[in-house]
Amino acid sequence: MLDKPKYSLLYVEDEAVIREMVVTYLDEIFTDIYEATNGEEALMLYHKKKPDIIITDIEMPKMNGLKFASLVRKEDETTPLIITTAYTSVEYLLEATELNLIKYLVKPIEEEKLEEALQSCFDKIELKSSSVVRLTKKYRYDTFNHTLTFEGKLVSLTSSQLQFLDLLIKNRNRAVTYMEIENYIWYDKVMSDSALRSLVYDIRKLIGKNSIENVSKTGYRINLYE
Questions:
Q1: Among 129, 156, 187, where does a domain finish?
Q2: How far is the C-alpha of 55 from the C-alpha of 155, rounded, in Å?
Q3: Does residue 21 sit in the same domain as residue 114?
Q4: Last residue of a domain, one of 86, 110, 129
Q5: Full residue range of the structural domain in which residue 143 is found
Q6: Strands (DSSP E) along 31-162, which ranges?
Q7: Are residues 107 and 196 in the same domain?
Q8: For 143-164, how does the pLDDT look when each residue is reduced to its tens digit (9 = 90+)?
Q9: How many C-beta atoms lie closer than 10 Å to residue 188's C-beta?
Q10: Which residue has the higher pLDDT, 183 or 87?
Q11: Total domain count for the chain?
């Protein structure tokens, strides 16, 4: 049995007997388990609870597991996903490969294989967590995946905005000089004052003007959320 981590799980399975058996087994591993019997119900729970890990069956009424997983992936590329199925259809396998899965498990699921898949989920979360910083109460930046999220949803940024956030966060304990900014973002051009001011203004509009501090005659420093 795996050690109990501080993670939540969304488990999607339409067969009551299987669902009850798996939830009973996994209850010793997760802090919270949210149960759904079809893809539509699962999608509502996903948006409401934002689980750390998702396990979903494929064959279900109303909305199947692949459709549910694809909708999750449209707004969330990182939450670990495990798909379970009683079928080994080539069509299903091909669809599943597009979903950035941790594992595709065939029923009946062996405890050892399930635990291996869950351990992979835990490892992925730990790797991601170490790279995620809180910019504000609702904004987070992932330096590993170079993504900004607002309440868990991806925010589109330009390459310059991403580079600027990367640079400030990597050097969060000091002011980043104007020269460093120019060399990192405008390495093949000359950085104009107006271009830099515009870049800072656009980022401040997103995450708040107090998040990025201008250090007189030096450069900029980021103030992370405590």
A1: 129
A2: 26
A3: yes
A4: 129
A5: 132-222
A6: 32-36, 53-57, 81-85, 103-106, 132-134, 139-142, 147-150, 153-155
A7: no
A8: 878 889 888 788 999 999 999 9
A9: 4
A10: 183
A11: 2
